[in-house]
Amino acid sequence: MLRNVLLQLIANAAAIMVTAYLLPNEVNYQGNYTTVAAFALLLGLLNAVLTPVLNLITWPLACLTFGLFRFVVNVAVFLLAAWLVPGSVLHVTLLGAVIGSLVAAAAGALIGTLLREER
Fold first, then answer.
1. Are 29 and 81 in contact (CB under 8 A)?
2. What pTM value is reported for the model?
């Protein structure tokens, strides 16, 4: 259980670093790895607490858009986590949040698949 949480945190940190590497003008964390760690922790907490609430509230929109509105919720949570990082040393634009949430979702799915096969 704890290993799964740590792997998700690593996936979130890798998502922001990969996005910063792919789009340096859209995501800037100023080379500080504690900023990346704080972002990964905040994103994990927000995904555990806030995302289910937002998904419940926006359920009708998700039904109308065949689930694509969930992507909007993920981008919003990604932007909120970037905004809440202490010290404001992480700068993420909308395009950076879109790409970052895609990378984070892909990394999370990959880790989930690897952990399911291990059992």
1. no
2. 0.82
